[in-house]
Write the structure tokens for this entry.
Amino acid sequence: MLSDIQIAQNAKLIDIRQVAEKLGIKEDELMLFGKYKAKLTNELFKRVENNINGKLILVTAINPTPAGEGKTTTTIGLGQAMAKRNINAIIALREPSLGPVFGMKGGAAGGGMSQVVPMEDINLHFTGDIHAVTSANNLLCAMLDNHMHYGNDSDIDSRRIEIRRVMDMNDRALRNIVTGLGGKSNGVPREDSFMITVASEVMAVLCLAEDMTDLKRRLGNIIIAYKSDGEPVYAKDLSAEGAMAALLKDAFMPNLIQTLEGTPCIMHGGPFANIAHGCNSLRATRLALKLSDYVITEAGFGSDLGAEKFFDIKCRKAGLKPDCAVLVATLRALKYNGGAPKDELRQENKDALIRGLSNLKAHIISLKQFGLPVVVAINKFDEDTDSELMIVESACRELGAEFEISRAFAEGGEGAVALAEKVIEAAESESEFKLLYPDDMPVTEKIKSIAIKIYGASGVDYSSAALKSIQKIESMGYGNLPICVAKTQYSLSDNPKLTGRPSGFNISVKQVRLSAGAGFIVVYCGDIMTMPGLPKNPSAAGIDIDENSKISGLF
């Protein structure tokens, strides 16, 4: 059996200009990165801005196992399947972070016969977008420290610096550091820390900005610190937004690539969903809607994280109205949520499966609260039995959700045709999308609404620091912003050990931070690391390159 990278390396790619041509994109509207990658320019945006929008389909998932459940594979398979029906469809995905690539979870290019290519490029440096975000963020940090070194005219309290340096790699040694050591010429000594790039506010800003003017405005509104009197200091106070936007000029343009079957994919932006808002860029989604009849996009992790943020943050900000939600599940994840041991998930276990269905049902109910039709897609593995699949289908039918098996991993687009037909039928049906909470609801009530309606919690517990931060945010006039919850992806609760459909628990809010540039309030629940660490046996240890520059071991 070929590995994902071997399948990708054997693929016959077509020139990216031909992929663009299928969408009616002209060659002079592309910025080429070799033969198989291109950026989509502002000229294209201007030309198609008055086109009618296509249908918007969100692919999400139940709470996953650590290996993930094939959400990206299903998304890609759906796009390929629609192409087989001669339907003009575009896939819109996030870019992979190097942290998971070299860590444990892997990349974000799909798998098997449903991948986007060139796979090695996508999972490594791609077109440099994430590096540009790193540079823009760290320029702001350098300008802040430089300001303090030269007298600190803004009276910045060194104990209340909000901005953190970033890098696109898992490195636990950088979680807590001290900078400015070595004497007066090396800056002002202070405690500091690193975040992974994709958790940064600069990444969120890149993904939520509408145009270059909006990008600069949002960058300027990033709160970098507080003064001794408690007043905020913004990036614009250091005149940093212009240089940051200049660094992001090319990164702000979405990337066009293709699937193994030559169908188009726009890939752009990459915030995590457990510690950020988990969606690809607004700019990419909007452009895809103008260029196609159907846009299939995804949000990170389960619907409790990625989908809720996609709806309540991205769709709220952009006025987007999705037409259908696809909920990806696997039998192994259902058994995992039913208490089966990790090393026994491939074995038939109807009792664990039935217990785990409570998780699937919770996600279906959550998605239906947004007024959307739901199609459950079972990402099928060889060991899955017909009797187990029938149990899942019956549970979906009880809750009024369509059900279909996806064989996109093994068969590519052909293996997802039946799923695509169900999705198209659902997307064309009458629906009325609605948000979970209004803008003017108090911050604590917004958090409570998410906790009770989406997580199934009984209530919310706050630390004194969190309540103080909420009070400060509301007094500053930012109480109308949406909520971005940072919590574990492995449970509907904030405790990763509570699988299935936990009940009788409270969500614990430890910290609340304002992302004024991105335009949301980050609520930290449980122990969430914004700088992950590598596992004991990282994926990086199995990656190699030979004398002919051929890469191996990349999944």
About this structure: The chain has a mean pLDDT of 95. The chain is about 35% helix and 20% strand.
